[in-house]
Design goal:
With 243 residues, the chain is of the alpha+beta class. It has one domain. 18% of the residues lie in helices and 31% in strands. It is built from five helices and 19 strands. The chain has helices at 2-11, 15-27, 29-32, 97-106, 237-242, and strands at residues 43-45, 52-55, 60-67, 76-80, 88-92, 111-113, 116-117, 121-122, 125-126, 128-136, 142-146, 151-153, 164-166, 171-173, 180-182, 190-191, 200-202, 215-217, 228-235. Strands 1, 2, 3, 4, 5, 10, 11, 13, 16, 17 and 19 form an eleven-stranded mixed beta sheet that branches. It has a two-stranded antiparallel ribbon with strand order 6-9. The protein has a two-stranded antiparallel sheet with strand order 7-8.
Length: 243
């Protein structure tokens, strides 16, 4: 598992970032090994807690989480728990989002760059990512929805009409320890407003100023707070091939 991800990272040209991601994956290698997949050879766990995994056959990355917010201010569709769940619909169990980055690379997705702000706005780029949410209600019935259906456009009152891209976040260095840190770990994972640290972001200008916010939770489409969910990330690999 380690060697395959290492080759993918290096082939993508992410020389500085790859050594950090691979080092952390090496530490988690026993949990990520195919022998620890409950008998399904298509499943590769990326964490010891089994809250992030790759479905090799479907070319998907899956994360565990819970519904955190159903109404109010919104900046994220999903964030790591204990970060920005007060303004994120889903709080994810995983904390090391670089594992998700590596998993997306391993199944062929290519990062672009997060939103850039200078004299003009530069929108996020990268492989387009379909986001699907799965959950089971209290009666035991299984449900599935597009991530966009949980987000409402304040102007049109309809579900989010834009797609997400694999922007890739960035690594930042602690000025005291000089350790590298994957910025999306601090909360900016699947964004609905543009941040310079977003791992997955909308591919258009979505202002972060509260007075200009465009989106809110689509409360009627979201199950009760605390509902356990799976967030499924499916790269549109044909987009990556065309670039």
């Amino acid at each position: 598992m380690f060697s395959r991800i290492a080759r993918t990272l290096l082939a993508a040209g992410l020389f500085a970032a790859s050594s950090l991601i691979v080092a952390r994956l090496r530490a988690d290698e026993p949990a990520a090994a195919a022998s620890n997949n409950g008998g399904d050879e298509n499943i590769v766990y990326m964490t010891k807690e089994r809250d992030v995994w790759i479905d090799k056959q479907k070319k998907q990355v899956v994360l565990k989480g819970k519904v955190a917010v159903r109404e109010g201010n919104l900046e994220m569709l999903a964030c790591p728990e204990q970060t920005k769940e007060y303004e994120s619909i889903i709080a994810l169990s995983a904390h090391k989002m670089e594992n998700v980055h590596a998993a997306l690379l391993a199944i062929g997705a290519q990062p672009g760059h997060p939103a850039r702000f200078d004299t003009t706005f530069h929108p996020p780029t990268g492989t387009h990512i379909d986001v699907t949410i799965r959950w089971t209600d209290k009666e035991g019935k299984k449900h599935e929805a597009r991530g966009q259906d949980w987000v409402r456009n304040l102007k049109t009152h309809k579900p989010l009409e834009y797609s997400w891209v694999f922007a890739g976040s960035r690594f930042v260095e602690d000025p005291e320890t000089h350790e590298k840190h994957y910025a999306a770990n601090d909360g900016d994972f699947i964004s609905v407003v543009n941040f310079a640290d977003s791992a997955i972001d909308l591919s258009f200008e979505s202002p972060k100023d509260w007075s200009e916010h465009v989106f809110e939770p689509f409360t009627e489409h979201i199950p009760p707070k605390g509902t356990e969910v799976e967030v499924v990330l499916t790269p549109k690999l044909q987009n990556a091939e065309k670039k």
